[in-house]
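Throughout our pipeline, every protein is held as a single compact record rather than as scattered files. Such a record has a labelled line for the sequence and another for the backbone structure tokens. This encoding replaces a full spatial description with a residue-level series of whole-number codes. For reference, a complete record is included directly beneath this paragraph.
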Amino acid sequence: MGIISWIILGLIAGALAKWLMPGNDGGGWLATMGLGIAGAFVGGFIGGLLGLGGANGFNIGSIITATLGAFLLLFVYNRFIKS
């Protein structure tokens, strides 16, 4: 997957994770992309460990995997770091 695809996937996944997580998180487009891209790595790693597959292309499965990873990162940030 190219860098442009990772950025687009990260933007979509980060925006979905922020939309699903209640509360005021702040951050702009760059924070949302960073959250989504990091979430794609985390979701892909966890999905690979569980045998569910990772974020390996621009498709619905990758968006879901990246969004779940971004949601997990956002939860950890809000729960432990932001408090």
